[in-house]
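Ticket #4471: complex job returned nothing on first submit. Input attached below:
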Amino acid sequence: MAGMSHDFRKLRLDRVSRSFGLHNALRDVSLEAARGEFIALLGPSGCGKSTALNCLAGLLPLTGGGIWLDERRIDQLKPEERGFGMVFQNYALFPHMSAEKNVGFGLRMQGRPKAEIDERVAKAMALVRLDEQRHKLPGQMSGGQQQRVAIARAIVIEPPLVLMDEPLSNLDAKLRLEMRAEIRRIHNLVGSTTIYVTHDQDEALSLADRIVVMRDGQVRQVGRPDELYGRPSHADVAEFMGYRNLLRLSVAAVADGVAETSFEGALLQGTLLGKASPGDTAVVAIRPDDLTPRSNGPISARVISAEYRGRDFYGIASAAGGQELFFRSEHKVAAGEELALGADPARVLIYPNEAPPVKA
Amino acid sequence: MTGGMIALDRHPLALRAWNTTIWVLVGFFVLNLLAMIASVLVNSFGTRWFNTWLPAGFTTKWYFSAWAEFQLGDILIVTFQVVGAVVLLSGTLGVLGAYALARREFPGKRLVMLLILLPLLVPPLTYGIPLATVLYQFGAGGSILGVVLANLVPTVPFVVLVMIPFIEQIDPRVEAAARVFGANSRQMFVHVLVPLLAPGILAALLMVLVRTIAMFELTFFTAGPSSQTLVVALYYAVYAAGVRAPQSIDAMAVIYMATTMIWLLIALRFVNPTQLVTRVKKS
Amino acid sequence: MTMAAMENPPLRLRLAAMGVDNVTLLVLPAVLFVLALFVYPFFYGLALSVEPLEGAWYANYVKFFTDPFLYDTIGKTLRLAVPVTLLCVFLSIPIALRVRHMRNQRLLTTILVLPITLGTVLIAEGLLNYLGPQGWLNRTLIAIGLIGGPLQLVHNYWGAFLGLLIAIFPFTFLLTLSYVTGIDPALEQAASTLGARPWARFRHILLPLLAQGLTVNFCLSFVQAFSVFPTAVLLGSPAGSTRVISIAAYTAAYEAYDYSLASTIAMIMAGVQLLIVAALLSARGLLYRGPMGGAKG
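Support reply: We reran it on our side without changes. The output follows.
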């Protein structure tokens, strides 16, 4: 019964919408995922990414659109009829069942013979390296171990699609890095399509084949990690991807994908993303990593504070107009010091005719 | 059974029938409950009600006759005296006890907890009779004092149990801070703890109030003719039905309902209805 | 400071090290109170029960268990209390499972809290009106043609049964509801993504997690049903089928003025009840007990 055919070619979300009363949690979300792909839904809390996942799992009915697995429409099916594996944020392990029983639950629901269940459970437990903890109850296990049980429980039924809802958000920083590698390793071994919800862009960048950035229930950008990192399509996506310097400047000159903006008399060159003509206002986005002191730096600013982070110094400086700038320096800088800051034009992104995103 | 249920949850129609059955059950229960209360209300205002859906006419005279016949003025005064004393005393004893139990680990704490839990686990009837005997021996039987003492037996433990989670929820460092800034124990209690605990104390005491008005068994065993509360007087009136007009008894029942409902409505502004049954959860 | 003083710190400090200080003493009034008004009367009653008006110390117990008019009350109480409690617990489960998804639970729970705050005496009076031969229920049943003549629903076993049901069901239900809402909804969602249909989710997830709460619930509801008194007197037939054990105790104390026998009956009542509660709670040891959430790290 349960379990779609494992060798589907394509998962397709077609203008999926979900509203709660007047609030639209998801608006016309369309997306395609190929078999075996690892896709991260990335966005700040309340952007609709978890709603999208719950709609995929069947835990929330859609209020518009459809979900298709190849030619089969699945959005009317109940969660128990979809046969997807899901890893919940708080793991949702059954507290009265041992690790082994938790992992075997899905197979028991399918009515598999005991021998097969035992064998597949043992394999899954070995895959997540939990052979020793088989008989423990979830309450007796550490957070990381519970996380592994939750993953094993989702993949043991060999689902066509694995859904993960912020699975690492309850772990401490060190364990999070460890489990991140584990999830990637398991994905590579099992090869099922994975949809992974997170608000942590590092997690999305390191895990996913493709990232879907969401905001206010809508998809803002879909792309490979390097595309999102280097070329966010909008200023708000840029902000979310770590472009902390967002300056509202006016365009001075435009030429062939490159533009010059004027910053307090000086000219700041960057890559133009969109159409602009001189006199337009634009949002200029620069990562703190890319804004460094240099001999011909066009921006003069006074250091407010700086901290040492291992190899480099990161600091905040104030430009003559009072604007705060986040920068990096290879040399020690001291508060009060005057710097000439600048950035490689390829790393300066200019979004014409966009309002800077409202900071949370 | 299993087979049947599995068949059931595969058929949407059967599932809907199951849901409907449940709502019909709930509706039936609530309907009967409200009809029961309404019949008391209607009867108390009826002139004569025999073999018809509604009384022949309506009047308020039964309230005046009930008030005089059952000496409701005196009974209400006794009721409020008893309830007031129980609320104050159980509040004081209960909050102090809960504070000690929430803040200290000491040898024998489990025993103390068990001791305090016991009166809530045993129905009032089993200890009511021996308690009444003891109270009569010490001359407190049949008096308001005896009724108050008897009613404190379940309410003091109740306040302790309700207040413990409330107190545990308050960070002990807040108290430490008050001490650092020079508050002595009494000042700390009055200026820091009581304001922080006020919602919890209010909730606990309102629940005590509602429960004490309705507490029949303990009051029944310990009350004398001059120390009856409303619920006991109502019992005697119903027990001796036939002596008085039934409308008069129902008028008294309505007055009784009104006294509990007012407090219930006030209580529900501050507590969740389930808290009248279960203990307050940490939240 | 001398060596002796260091080896024997003052009593105050030694006590404080064990956690006994001024704050701990705040529990004393409550404890003394419970000792004086609960424990002492209980033992006093026990002592009184073995000091019969006449005969050997165990004469009252012999009397109780040889006089069918007395020992029958245990059976009659159980015949009333057990079915009512079981019915309440079993009905409360599916209803609580549905109600937990309700958006406006508060209205229903408020209505259901009414019988608890009104108390058994008022329920008895109301049901005497409502269930009586001229009451609305009988009139309605006759009007829709379900019955020919009025059903005798009061002053018999069924009167007491219904009165007890109305008094106890809200209590049982609200307790079940609080256990049910204590279960993390993600557990059921997890089970459904793993292919478990509604019945399987109930059977494998909810029921095991609820089992221990339901046992406690049964005990607490049973304790109330077992000590039924006003309902049995006013709605039942206190001389016949609903002559429950509490009536026997009351009669002994306040009609025969035999406080010794009354205490004996109270002790037997406590004994029977504790026996049943203890049996149920020891069976609880076999069940899962622990957090009902998703076992957070």
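Chains A and B do not touch (no CB pair under 8 Å). Closing as resolved unless it happens again.
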